[in-house]
Amino acid sequence: MRARGYNPPHLDRPAARKTPRVTEASPANPDPTDNDLLQRHIDGDESAFSQLVDRYQRELFSFLARFTGDAALADDVFQETFLQLHVSAGKFDMSRRLKPWLFTIAANKARDAMRKRTRRRALPLDAQVGNGDEGAATYADLIPADIPPPAETLVNNETRQAVRDIVAELPEGLRIVLVLCYFNGMAYKDIADVVQAPLGTVKSRLHTAVKAFADKWKVVAKQFGHD
Hints:
The protein is mainly alpha-helical.
């Protein structure tokens, strides 16, 4: 499922904030940065915001779907995230990178939505862990060498469901770092910005999350007949 097409609301244009801007666009690199697009949106360029939505539609929705385990809820949170970005654009410090801030908004709104959720609609997760870029991994990479990996059986619906359940059962603080790192391929320093924790804490939580996943998978592996 993909997030619905998003049209920026017809609200008052956010007030511009005069701060140094992160910019990388040049004749040699014509693609505008996220910060360039946000500034253009603040300045009144109606197409800039849509470009930002398009740029992050797949990655952000993928994160929200895996974090919440609910495609419909993820879709709603996606819309709310970009509405908040529109409303708060003028408050953003342009000397910083936009992506961690965007994911912070999304994570906070996802937490709120999950607390309000009255029933759960599970989203099947793909076997591939990561976004397919360099550094992406599979669930097998999370499993110690002495534990049978699920790689060959991930095509089995029962196994995929078991893997999804393991991720869903992790405490929220561990689940978010695992999803951001292994599904979204986000750098540790950016994850630290999203979860608002020191870099060392992020690495510690990720280590704990991987171990927790491995321990739970070891039990599941026995259930599936792996010795």
